[in-house]
Amino acid sequence: MKLVAAVDVGGTSIKSALVDADLRIFATANAPTPHNDLDGNKTVKVISELLSKIASPGEIKAVGLAVPGALDETNGISRWSGNLGWKNLPIRDLLAREINIPVAFGHDVRTGALAELRNGAAKGVNNAIFIPIGTGIAAGLIIDGKIRSSDGFAGEIGHVDVGAKFDCVCGKKGCLEAASSALAITSAYAHASGKAGISSEEIATLAHSGDVLAEKIWNDAMTSIATACQMLVTVLAPEVIIFGGGLSQSGNLLINPITKALAGSLTFQRAPRLVIAHYGAQAGTIGCAMMALDLLPGGGN
Question: Which residues contact 292 (CB under 8 A, 6 or more apart)?
Answer without folding.
Answer: 4, 5, 6, 19, 61, 62, 63, 64, 102, 104
